[in-house]
Here is the input.
Amino acid sequence: MRNYAIVVAAGQGRRFGGTKQFHAFHGIPIFIYSLQSFQRNTHIDSIIVVVPGNKTRTVRQLIKEFKLTKVKKIVVGGRRRQDSVSNGLDQIGKQSGIALIHDAVRPLVAQSLIDKGIKLCKKHKAVIFGTAIGDTIKEARNHRVLHTVPRHNLFLVQTPQFFDIRLLKKAFVQNTLDNEYTDEASLLEAQGIPVYIFQGRRDNIKVTKKDDLKLIEKLR
Here is the structure.
């Protein structure tokens, strides 16, 4: 069994105002921090990074510069996130193991979270992490509150997400509808495949807007 980290760095970063994964944070592109986390982890055998088509040469140079020896494949992303993940997953052969799917713009992923996810995935086959929602949630339309959403059992979901490779591949093959999924767990859920969620880490921040960099600075 082998463990593969598929790092998705193919987004356009519209809310950020550009390709945020390539934004320099202390002189280092944000996605490099994510790659370094998986490079350091002793359970990760190979890394596949999915990037925009016009960035492959730049990424290849950066991987060499930062000595990211576990990066075995650089793959061009697709139109949607799920297309990019599928392109990365296609680089893995028929062997058994675990695929970790990670947003490149979560640069603070902890080693303990990676270790725990791999361990749990060996038992449950499909594992994600999230943090419980503490605030009151309202559904509204045109600024008018429609109703309050019960917050118990609600989670803010994080990456990496952990899947048995064969199970995830099967889910992609059986996805005959052209629905868009914001994460791979949703794809499995739509097919009735059990997904298990555990408590994540509040410092596993996703960089969405430039203000998020200030929070990253405080937490790193």
